UniProtKB/TrEMBL annotation:
Annotated CENP-V/GFA domain residues: 4-120
Entry keyword Oxidoreductase: no
UniProt KW keywords: Lyase, Metal-binding, Zinc
PANTHER family per record: CENP-V_GFA DOMAIN-CONTAINING PROTEIN-RELATED, GFA DOMAIN-CONTAINING PROTEIN
Keyword Transmembrane: no
Name assigned to this protein: GFA family protein
Family affiliation: Belongs to the Gfa family.
Organism lineage: Bacteria, Pseudomonadati, Pseudomonadota, Gammaproteobacteria, Oceanospirillales
InterPro entries: CENP-V/GFA, Mss4-like_sf
Amino acid sequence: MKIHKGSCLCGSVAFELSGEFDSFFLCHCQHCQKDTGSAHAANLFSTSGTLTWRKGRDLVKTFQLPETQHSKSFCQNCGSAVPTHAENLGFVVVPAGSLDTPIDKTPNAKIFMKSQAEWTKSMDNVPGFETLPE
């Protein structure tokens, strides 16, 4: 069985997910744009995996957006996104950027593209740099 390890930015929260990821979505909905402060969320979903908090469970806060299925868990020290156990939906959501171990899964789909931020629609010609440009 695969073990996926992850943590928050400050290292106060650490977790493991034992099992496989069923899907990997880049979500462009407005809720994900707001809670990431970016163009989309990059989340892995597991229906059979077991989430274990290795440290800092008491620092994890989960925000449930009223009258929606949207929730986000984060470290109360640094604000980093960490996994959410969506018991009512039957899966664990793991923010891809929170993982410390590599995954061999690529995104299955971009979802909620009708909400895609306008500024992301013409990114093909934006230059890329290995580090911060001078």
